[in-house]
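Task card 7
Instruction: Convert sequence to structure tokens.
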Amino acid sequence: MENRGVLGIDESNHGNFPEIYVAVFSFNWNYVKQAQNPLPRIKIESIDDFLPDDCEFKHIIFSDQFSEFHVDALKTIAISEFISYFMIKHKRMRRIINDGDMKRSIRKKIDSNLSCFKVPKIISRKNADKIYPVVYMADRIANYLFRHYSEDGLIKPYLNNLITPKFEDYQSLLKTA
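Output:
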């Protein structure tokens, strides 16, 4: 089977704070096969029970500390951080599937941020979370994390899955007047 991984990315609460991005990584290419019918919108009650053993996830929570950034900059930061983390950890990634459109300028900034890597092919597609299982998993986990964000204790078990971008690393992406 394929020995390079796939990364699915989605977000919850787009354009508002907190905005939560989730990436699911797997070497299982069955999660890239397009579903014949739209994948169902279910509320998961446990990430551990939902996520298959051959997958792992990371998430980023953008609080209002990042309100100075345009939504495109937040997407650039999230995707750059996820690619960097999983490329360093696994060294082999073949494809990234992102839910939603991606402007060319975002892709150029990602390539610039990650000039030390050969950035894999990125597929950005509206409603990818209804078509690709790897993106669907990211969507459902993002939804779970958003629903439980303010409830003490429920998100704490997933702090090990949290990536915290350094504000100063992305100052060049700040909104300009």
